[in-house]
Amino acid sequence: MPARAVRISAVDLFCGVGGLSHGLQDAGIHVAAGVDLDRTCDYPYRRNVRAPFHRRDVRDLTVEELSAMWPAGAVRVLAGCAPCQPFSSYRRGVDTSNEAQWPLVDEVRRLVEGTMPEIVTMENVPRIGGTRIFRDFVEQLREYGYHVDFGSCYCPAYGVPQHRRRLVLVASLLGDIAVPKGPVAPGEYTTVRQAIGSLPPIGHGETHSADPLHKSRTLTPLNLERIKRSSPGGSWDEWPEELRAPCHRKASGATFRNVYARMTWDEPSPTITTLSYSFGAGRFGHPEQDRAMTLREAAILQSFPEDYEFVPPGEPAQFAPLGRLIGNAVPPLLAKAVGAAIVEHVAAVKGVVRKVARATALPV
Questions:
Q1: Which DSSP symbol is given to 46?
Q2: For labeling, which of 195, 235, 237, 265 is most exposed (least CB within 10 Å)?
Q3: pLDDT band at 91, cuts 50/70/90?
Q4: In the 8-state DSSP scheme, what is residue 214?
């Protein structure tokens, strides 16, 4: 008698705008719900993931509430991608020992202990792997009976057109499980040109009429002159002295070349941050247009689909909140690879996995 197909169902803690959830769905995993405290995540999560969104502080989420989100009989996945700012490489040298967000990792542990889902996954910045809080989390998972694997994943190897490394953890009560290897070879990485080269050109300070997210920040006259003097892949050291920032005129500023700079067409983009719309915050200048990258370009370079909706119709796209949501998101293509590894793992143990398509109707 053939084995009955099982369904895999995930709850996404700290779900943001749905990057992880969207990728898991693309792998055939049912997403039961997303949880996040940020109200601006409600519309994009429901609209694109088409799963219930719970605006909750994870610290207040009870074991009983979480358990009720999963459908009966499913192989349960708990994704707990706690906010990564305390561990970011952009904060090297900052004392993070008393960060308020550190306990959020322990909140994930609390909910794992209380619900014991078959699968646990986490994505974060690589630096978290060297912290005591992460080592303790891994040890506690093993004490609960989980098989655990984690490692640094280079996003271009998973199809993401962006130089970005992320730590991925997978854990299973069902048996040995492994972080997936990136299937894309170095010579085949998706480039900036392949990702955003077909988008319609716009000027600085403009918004494309057909897409509210394809908008660029207005440049000051000084920054407009600076970007006009910048070549793709170049830096501020191409400028005449009078255009350089005061810090770059000193010998101590010579090492900071990846600011006020253009991307290059034929390789992946730099890491997309929460300030990727700002010319002065990194190598975020368009390769040939005299402007910084748009919010839509940042989202595509994170591997979101080009039609992913972040704001309701008629509502303006605001740089700071959307830049934060896009920059903090899990790249969907990386999430898809993790989801595919989970599906393969469950199938090896349980037999047949019933893959689930993304819902077509919006959740109530």
A1: I
A2: 237
A3: very low
A4: S
Domains of the chain by range and CATH?
A: 8-185+329-350 (3.40.50.150)
Give the tokens for residue 189.
């990485």
CA atoms within 13 A on the CB side of 283: 21
| 325 CB-side CA count, 13 A | 29
Spatial contact of 171 and 120, defined as CB atoms under 8 Å apart: yes
Cβ neighbors of 220 (< 8 A, separation 6 or more) are none
- What is the C-alpha separation between 292 and 277, in angstroms, rounded? 6
DSSP-derived pairing of the beta strands 8-13 and 119-124: unpaired
| pTM for the full predicted model | 0.92
Mean per-residue pLDDT of the chain: 91
CB atoms within 10 A of CB 228: 11
- The per-residue pLDDT for 241 is 76
Report which of 213, 217, 230 is spatially closest to residue 316, judged by C-alpha positions.
213
Q: What is the mean pLDDT of residues 48-63?
A: 97
Contact 298, 326 (CB under 8 A): yes
| Mean pLDDT to the nearest integer, 329-335 | 98
Which of the residues 41, 81, 84, 155 is marked catalytic?
84
Alpha helix stretches (DSSP H) within the chain? 19-26, 42-44, 63-69, 103-115, 132-143, 192-196, 221-228, 295-301, 319-328, 332-350
Q: Could you tell me if 31 and 51 are in contact, meaning their C-beta atoms sit under 8 angstroms apart? A: yes
Q: Is the pLDDT assigned to residue 349 strictly greater than 90? A: yes
Look up 81 and say whether it is catalytic.
Answer: no
